[in-house]
């Protein structure tokens, strides 16, 4: 490669990196549940043979892309013996200014946010409670950055409907998985 060509390539790359927007990758964390660990008893469902306090865990996220106007947070168990998994929590229309939910937030969501009906038939956090003796189930915690402020649905929506919006129009997302068995 000639000296001129290598200087031109270098100049073009340098200019690209100076003008290209930086893409921040989203991340999702929890002070209560570390990825790839077992979910503690503080978050277990109270019913279906389980006797937990059914408290939603603390979640925090960062790195949403430009154009984010709201968030969806959901928790899904793909191992539930239903043929379609199990929605434990689906929060939507979280304002873009909200980047964390404290422990127990299902009882007091930020203004404007809504909870869809989970597969326990409640508009609430529904903690893990897999069938006794099953291999521990995976619980996938995900936050989605959404371009719209409101999804245009209400609290009668199912977790699957919220999941539809998340998978068809999110700008970015972040997830972690934890397990629980009994």
UniProtKB/TrEMBL annotation:
SUPFAM superfamilies: PEBP-like. The keyword Signal applies. The lineage of its organism: Bacteria, Pseudomonadati, Pseudomonadota, Alphaproteobacteria, Rhodobacterales. This is Phospholipid-binding protein, PBP family. Gene3D superfamilies: PEBP-like. InterPro entries: PEBP, PEBP-like_sf, YbhB_YbcL/LppC-like. It comes from the Bacteria. PANTHER family: PEBP (PHOSPHATIDYLETHANOLAMINE-BINDING PROTEIN) FAMILY PROTEIN, UNCHARACTERIZED PROTEIN YBCL-RELATED.
